Amino acid sequence: MLMQTHEARLSALREELKKRGLDGFCVPIADAHMSEYVGEDAQRLRWLTGFGGSAGSAAVLLDKAAIFVDGRYTVQVRDQVEERLFEYRGVPKDSPAAWLARNAQEGAKIGYDAWLATPGWVRSTTAALEKVGAKLVAVEGNPIDAVWQDQPAQSDAAARVHADEHAGRNAQDKRQAIADWLTEEKLDAVVLSALDSVGWAFNIRGADIAHTPVAMAFALVSQDGTAQLFIDENKVSPELKQHLGNAVSIRPRAEFETALGEVGDKRIALDPEYGVAAIAQALEAGGAKVVETRDPTILPRAIKNEAEIDGHRDAQARDGAAVSRFLAWVEAEAPSGEIDELTAAAKLLEFRSVDGDLKDTSFDTISAAAGHAALPHYKVDEDSNITIPPGSIFLCDSGGQYIGETGAGTTDITRTVWVGSKDGDAQPTPEMKDRFTRVLKGHIAIAQAIFPEGTTGGQLDTLARHALWQVGCDYAHGTGHGVGSALGVHEGPQRIAKTTGSQGGTTEPLAAGMICSNEPGYYKAGEFGIRIENLVLIEERQIEGADEGTWFGFENLTWVPIDRTLIDVDLLTPEERDWVDHYHACCREILGARLAQTGDTQATDWLERHTQPL
After folding, report:
1. How many helices and strands in the chain, by DSSP H and E?
2. Cα gap 7→4, rounded to integer Å
3. How confident is the model at residue 74, as a pLDDT?
4. What CATH number was assigned to the domain covering residues 160-301?
């Protein structure tokens, strides 16, 4: 009989822990690759607690338990997780390690899955527990898997070749660059464990995880340029074998741990952010020296080449047409009071899916009406779904993964729009227009920024917040994240964010070819939320009279009109008005022909009206 309640599941886990002689267990949202999004088989925290967010963890003792989330999920965790079963704890103020140190008894054995934890996490948690006489213990087989009776199977989707014309660089060249790096660093090999790193280095893609077109695989790349790819054999086609060539040995994924133990007395690079503790432990058990250093694919992957940039531009134009058709539909239909959040999200997917090159969405669509828009990472479901009220703000954050003949790219866009009433009398409040316009001013400030080589995202972040700060307002998320090329919608190492706080900033210098989001926001709890997001490309700028050195600016990539109804034009400077007018003129030029081809006269009329000069 399947366990339907979370109380029964928690009880079953505790019984399993007792059988193993354990006094507690740590439950992250994680897979063996430290992926942002994980497969259904890895959703252990959701199965145990009911929490459906993308980041969080739990600590379970035999008599109490706690769930840990950051500020994005403070409301969601209370809606989805029973407080009588799990204490609500916020990070970074608290952590599983600190909570366990406060609550575990002396001599307690706390289990963890070494395939779901980084070496750094193991070191810090071990140290915290040792202070109170408790011990962290790696388990053989995850105890949740032992009691999760209907746990989904891992994906068996085939891996596929990512064409050189989309990648802009063949896989042999990429792996030779890795080999050269190993030589320079006096390392014998590197473990690539992040799925997007493997996908980039071997020019392969897949469908094993929702939203990110990757194949479940590990790789070991050696100093001589040869590599071993550990991937389930049923995912490998003759075409893929031919693509990989003789320099790549294809081995079953199940042999990965054994192979690590056979490396011997070698210096092996492992990224401490993506390489799990089990990998380090297997290498060390076989006599290898683990050198913790950044994955050598991360920076080259972040700096897009011309083929990848062209693919992005193509994907953005496709996506812009779909989102414009959607917003025209929202403007026409939502004032009836009969459209709900789920219906809106489904309609947006319908418009995107007209394009046969759409492979997936790039994340779960945030379709957020009224007070839900004030939750930056809101995820609509059957329980939370509400009707979009006439006379309210509607926020939609969404994206697509496009791979086709004309290119490949990953999109991410947020638009905040005013939903009117049937009689047309409903108007946004002065406060709504003020906050929207200040968010827009911040967006424009980033879009127009000029900065010298060596500038970091943390240095630019203030530009996006300045207009909000003037009236005592701010937002709790970063201003911009990196974006992959038909890979992860969130990609490092660059980031535009505060340099302190729970969402942290970055010291990574921004470089030409990097793609970032530009997404300042404002959120009034329980009432409305605002975010305006485009993707931008960092490019070199020639500035007459500039000091010596290299200077950068942003090329805009996303083209969808910004809602004029919510703009307080008097708050904009003449230069900011010119930016909006120019942006809308470009939207009209780029999207006009595409919308005309669809025959959607509602959308073409909407585009014409929403791109008129301010």
Report:
1. 19, 28
2. 9
3. 85
4. 3.40.350.10
